[in-house]
Amino acid sequence: MAFTYFISDIHLSESRQDITDCLLDFLANEADKADALYVLGDLFEYWIGDDNVTPLSESVASAFHALSKKIPLYFIHGNRDFGIRQGWAKSAGMTLLPEQYVIDLYGTKTLISHGDELCTLDVDYQKFRKKARSWWWPRMMLALPLSLRKRIAENGRKKSQSKQKNLAADILDVTPEEVVKAMEHHKVTQFIHGHTHRPNIHCVKLSQGKGTRIVLGDWYSQGSIGKFSQDSVTLENRSL
Fold it and tell me: How many whole angstroms from its chain centre is CA 6?
């Protein structure tokens, strides 16, 4: 039976070898059985530039590149790794896609995204996102020394974690009205995203009927994988 894999929010880092091992095992022993693999953002805990070549970034790129010889690989930026550019993507054999992209998934027109752009109740984050995705901010950051970029990324991550502890759950989730707006704008009945770390399958009420929103899980405590065929959708886990 033909199927396609979707993953997101892997959050690879040097401090979590168990996550890296789980992903590398999946890429080497399972993923090639699919028609394609889509990575919907936050592959890395943070990304400070393609010029930051590390054993982790090289080993992951090599594993994806080997897989790309067998099946197509696609990547949408997340809020942690929006700095990934064509250089690293090419070394990983991945095709970069826009932040919202529509695919034909076994006859169903499907919107795919990381999903952070729909968390509009988190006003402070959306302000940062607008700045971070501007033309000037990435250029300014890449002009800084690698050591300084790494320190900025680590400090930013700590501040974000501290802030999230005090935010209401609905602020950290996608805004329902924005989901409907995005699905109706792209004229789709199916939407796949990550970011919220709340794996589930939701029914969405659209003006022209019902739609489905599938949320992928994160990889902090298990490897979370979405498996889509013409007849079924399953959210699976792999042990770390």
Answer: 9
